[in-house]
Amino acid sequence: MKEAPMTKVAVIEDDLPTSQQLTEWIRAARPGIQVDTWFTRDEAEAAIAREAYDMVVLDIELGRERNAGIAIINAINKGHQGTPVLVVSAMPAAIYRSIMKALDAWDYLQKTTFAESDFVDTFLEILRATRDRGAAEAPTPASDELSIDPLRQRSALWRGKRINLPLTAQRILATLYQQRGQVVSYDDLFEVVKSGRNRDNIRKHISTIREAFRELDEGFDRIENIPMRGFRWSDAPTGNAP
Q1: Per the database record, which ranges form the Response regulatory domain (predicted)?
Q2: Which of 3, 40, 134, 180 yields a CA-CA distance of 20 to 30 A from 200?
Q3: How many separate domains does the chain show?
Q4: Per-residue pLDDT tens for 211-229?
Q5: pLDDT digits 0-9 by tens, 98-117
């Protein structure tokens, strides 16, 4: 039997204690994984050019370069289509999450706001979602406007077109769609997110989801806000979603 190739992950973080902590969490979560650590933009970009990583975990600010991580993500997108990126940064999530979404990063965790379990859950979920990314996408049934493959979080399609969403928003979308027609409470949605378990953060994720749909369909109106309770996916336009 042919031996499966070793999973390789790059951790790009200029703070040594943080780099060591992330590396320890990754190795504990998946024994036998190869973790390469890089501390500057130049050495990270050189490594990305010569290695095919299964995932990249990076900070946005490296040394004095405030947006070095953005440049690295651009290099990843240019050279290795589909390589998942998990951003772990102290930069405000409210500002940078939308930027990372535009760059097609998979998810964003803000430092000091998440625990080890949050990081590990997100890390492993991304690995599982991408382990069969080379497989052909299943065709979308003509009768289903929204298609979500439970094995590949990132393969959600709206009327045959891929929806550009970070992983946390994908999880929220999947939860709403699985319970379509029913109110999904804030408490239920808190179980889906890995950090920022508060109503304001959930509303921001819902806004991100709506914006992503409207990039494909200006008239999208399927997620209904149920005041004081939560949200509901409707198979027919709701007529009142902001």
Answers
A1: 8-126
A2: 180
A3: 2
A4: 999 999 988 999 999 888 8
A5: 778 777 788 888 888 888 98
